[in-house]
Every structure is written in structure tokens, then in C-alpha cells.
Amino acid sequence: MAAATVAGIFHCRSHNCHHHLCQHAHSGERRPWLHEIRLGLLDHDTGNLWNGTGREDGLDLNVELAFSPHLALWHGQIRPNLGLSVNDRGNTSKIYVGGIWQHLRRNGLIFDLGAGLAVHDGEIEDPQAIDRKQMGSRVLVRFAAEIGYALTAHNRLLLLFDHVSNGYTADPNEGLDTVGIRYGYLF
User: Fold this and answer.
1) CB 167 within 8 A of CB 115
2) Helices (H), the chain
3) Helix (H, G, I), strand (E, B), or coil: what is residue 9?
4) Bridge-partner residues for 177, per DSSP?
5) Do the beta carbons of residue 94 and residue 140 sit within 8 Å?
6) φ, ψ for residue 109, nearest 5 deg
7) Cα gap 74→9, rounded to integer Å
């Protein structure tokens, strides 16, 4: 690691580089491994969205971490993420991992798209559990979209839509949608 940093600094100085990574290397600062943490309160199993029906109820307490390594793509950055949503009434909770494409506009508007996999503790296939979603598989595909605003350099307020389902790889496939509000703190 130290050798790579020294080599990077040498490369930057010898090529008169003004790239932000080079400037960071010159400052002697270490980059944090965590880019952002988001905390949210979500409406669990919101009906009449992608999944069509809402059978479970309650609120989901959500925490998500976005990590610092990133790849620049289409005027944004793709970052790895890890999250957890826990239902306050004992309905389906999940842990998820994947990536998010984040785009911040100059006017402070934020737009994110996420994709990955989720593991849940809900029902898989139990016709007797009429008040629970039948997910068909323990591992699900997750898609998310988020829009928000950067209040300050470190504080963000966002609206989230989150969908998980087995993507028609198993039967039944009653997807689960959540919507809600999240606060983000950027490191």
C-alpha cells in the first residue's frame, strides 16, 4: 500500500498531474473507506406499485452504507453498497448488497439507481400464511431508485423506492415494494 502511494505521488509529480486523486496523495490524507451512510423510515409493502398488492404492513427501519471505491460512469459514480431493512411488526426484513449509480447535479439534486441481491427472512411458499408475501426464493433481486437534494456538503434528504422479487426464477413471485424518506450523511 505504501509503495503504491509513493509510486502514485512520484507519477503525479513527474507528470504535473492535477487529478483529485493526485492532489489527495500530496495532502497526506487517507481516504475514508465509507463514502456515505443513509438512515431511513420506509412504508413496508406499499400497494399498487411494481408488485401490485400490499399484504404486509408496518414500517421498515433502514440503514445503508455506500463505500468509497467507485467507477465513473455517465456523469455519475458507481459504488458498492450494503444495507439492512428491518420491519417493525415482524414482517419480511432483508439484508442487501450490490451497487448504486449516484449522480449529483450542480444545483444539488441527487439521482441514484441501485441493483443487487437481497436475502430475506419472510415466507417462501406457505399457502397458509395469507397475511405474508410469498417470495418463492430466499435470495431475491433488488432494484432501487432514489431522488433527493444535497442540503449541505455533508447532509442529504432523499425519497427512496425499493423493489425485491425473485425475478420470475421461482414460483410464487410476490414482490415487495417499499417507499420512504432517508437522511444521508456524506463523509
Assistant:
1) no
2) 2-14, 20-27
3) helix
4) 163
5) yes
6) -70, 140
7) 28
Question: What CA–CA distance (Å, rounded) separates 154 from 152?
Answer: 5
Q: How far apart are the first and last CA of the chain?
A: 22
pLDDT tens digits, residue range 3-56? Answer: 333 333 333 333 333 333 333 334 446 678 899 999 999 999 997 776 667 679
Please count the helices (runs of H) and the strands (runs of E) in the chain.
Answer: 2, 9
Assess contact for 100 and 83: CB atoms under 8 A: no
Of the candidates 33, 15, 12, 32, the one whose C-alpha atom is nearest the C-alpha of residue 23 is 12
Cis peptide before 32 (omega within 30 of 0): no
How far apart, in whole angstroms, are the C-alpha atoms of residue 167 and residue 169?
5
Residue 8 — φ and ψ, nearest 5°?
-65, -40
Rg of the chain, C-alpha, whole Å: 20
Cell numbers linked to 22: 493526485
Amino acid at 33: W
